[in-house]
Amino acid sequence: MHYSTFTTSDNCPLAFQSSLPLQLPPTPSTPSTPNNSRTCILLLHGFSGSSAYFTRNTAPLSAHHWLVTPDMRGHGRSGHNPSRGGFHVARLAADLRELLAHLRQQTGDNKIKFIPVGCSIGAAVVWTYVELFGDRDFTGYVFADQAPLQDRAALGLGGVWDGGLAHRGCFDEASMLAAQRGWVEASERARTHIGLVRECLGYRVSPREGDGVGEEEARRDEEFFAGISAGCDGVWLARLLADHTRYDHREACEGITRPVLVMAGRRSGCFSLEGMEETVRRVRKGGNENAEMVVFESGHWLFYEEPERFNRELLRFVERCTR
């Protein structure tokens, strides 16, 4: 993978990894598109994560297609310009749109088939993109372990959304404030980072015989993911969390006209299967029957716990969307 950067319209540097080296716009003597770049898979990480999350996926996927893994604003190697705000899911969606424009400009190819894989908040970014800009830029969509609304809908606006559907740990004003304190207060941050890992790995949430993960490997996993979270600005993340948890994407899902695949972790510490299946229900309600959900036996980070199946299901879906 090759690291690269570009600068957004609000002067924020954003980093991303690409399985192919990008080139300047073509000249008459150079091809307009790098080998295998006609289809581009975009792996979008979750809250407090980075492109490094996909360490078990990049090599197998890039053997088949052009792969781009961004560090979203405020995450990984990307900047976040805190004095100018930017801690909104809508700003992250605008960043994604600018990334697509940058990739088209760098390759000189305006016909790239982009397929976003939104994991956790990455899914929210894609739903917001569809709401703001439509779904013409994408050939298909994958949403991994994220329900279209985190908070419980106390008034039932948009339909009943209770504790069996909302996020299990951050679902109202009180729980959101408690989560914000964990990211902001120095004495709580390390505990918050470890707590996130234990909420997102299925073998921690609901251990089973045969998981095959020893304490040493579990410790390495905790250090890996907690280290990535520790690299983020906790105050900025806390403000992003307040925006993210209240965003209701249910009706936006009804505007998706391209194929949809939802990947859900049976042992997710974040969402129930029923909550995640709402995306499929809403897409079909909008008249698009080309939507399905597959259930993994792992947790929220199913791409890490079951990488072989994740890669296989994703490649199968991409092939179906692009043939």
Structure at a glance:
GO terms for molecular function: hydrolase activity. This is Alpha/Beta hydrolase protein. This protein has helices at 58-62, 89-107, 121-133, 173-184, 186-200, 202-205, 215-230, 234-246, 250-253, 273-285, 302-305, 307-322, and strands at residues 2-7, 13-18, 39-44, 66-70, 113-119, 141-144, 260-265, 291-296.
Question: How would you sum up this structure, described in words?
Answer:
Keywords: Hydrolase. This is Alpha/Beta hydrolase protein. The radius of gyration is 19 Å and the shape is globular. It has a single domain (2-322), classed as Rossmann fold (3-Layer(aba) Sandwich), CATH 3.40.50.1820. It contains 12 helices and 8 strands. By secondary structure, the protein is of the alpha/beta class. It has an 8-stranded mixed β-sheet with strand order 1-2-4-3-5-6-7-8, sandwiched between helices. A hairpin with a 5-residue loop joins strand 1 (2-7) and strand 2. The model is unreliable at 24-36 (pLDDT under 50). The chain has helices at 58-62, 89-107, 121-133, 173-184, 186-200, 202-205, 215-230, 234-246, 250-253, 273-285, 302-305, 307-322, and strands spanning 2-7, 13-18, 39-44, 66-70, 113-119, 141-144, 260-265, 291-296.
Number of DSSP helical runs: 12
Low-confidence stretches: 24-36
Query: What structural category do the secondary elements indicate?
Result: alpha/beta
Topology-level CATH name: Rossmann fold
Give the name of the CATH architecture.
3-Layer(aba) Sandwich
Total strand count, please? 8
- The level 1 CATH classification is Alpha Beta
Give the number of domains: 1
Kindly, what is the distance between the CA atoms of the first and last residues, rounded to a whole number of angstroms? 26 Å
Q: Quick one: overall form?
A: globular
Overall helicity = 40-55%
